[in-house]
Design a protein that fits this description.
The protein is α/β, with parallel strands linked by helices. The protein has helices at residues 3-6, 32-41, 59-62, 125-133, 143-149, 178-187, and strands at 21-26, 47-52, 68-73, 80-88, 90-95, 105-107, 139-142, 154-160, 165-172. The protein contains 6 helices and 9 strands, in the order H-E-H-E-H-E-E-E-E-H-E-H-E-E-H. The strands form 2 sheets. Strands 2-1-3-9-4 form a 5-stranded mixed beta sheet. A 4-stranded mixed beta sheet has the order 6-8-5-7.
Amino acid sequence: MSAEEEFPQASAPSEPEGRELRFAYVAGVTPGKWIRRWEERMPDVPLHSFMSDDGAQLSVLRDGAADLSFVRLPVEREGLNVIPLYEEQAVVVAPKGHEISVFEEVALADLASETFLDVAELGGPEMALQVVASGAGLAILPMSVARHFNVKDTVARKLTGAPTTQIALAWPSEATDEVIEEFIGIVRGRTAQSSRQPSAKVEAPKKEPKPDRRGTGVKKPKVAQRYAPNPDKGRGKGSRKKGKR
């Protein structure tokens, strides 16, 4: 039996005409795989995405610019549903030619004498990396962020012993509907046939009747008994008296 026969085509959640879904994401998040899965499962609901600064990761939800937001924890959770997704590898970024470039990874304890820049005070990671390239100090960032901006004349190495950061999906508590639930399920890796997906309204396949193992041959008609029944049948041994010959 093919997959199509076993699982009938799922019907999308019924939503008002013109419904669309918008989500924001911070630098370092790569939502391409979720977008592709959405387009496969929900082609009738347009999906729009845009990148937001770390400082605006929640404001896009408060002002209604986005229905959901991929945020970097910690965040203020009041009035929000927040689902942690994964941790990010920390890296230390230094100017090109710095001694850390000869190592594959560096321990934070070995950099005690270095000057570290405050990324937030410098206006975000992109500006902080520009300052690092000038030789003013080092910066600690998630690896995905350092790769996203990829500022020339800098070098990044894995950093051990530093606190990790975590990416989560957030949305307003009162705004949950079937379309948002569908997107959450996709992000969490649920399959199209998962019973927890609103679009997976799949009817249980009907069981085929069991084959008749008795066969289709015509039963033989009963034949009249030719001989009289044996009077000794069922009696014990020697129950019949021997007669004279």
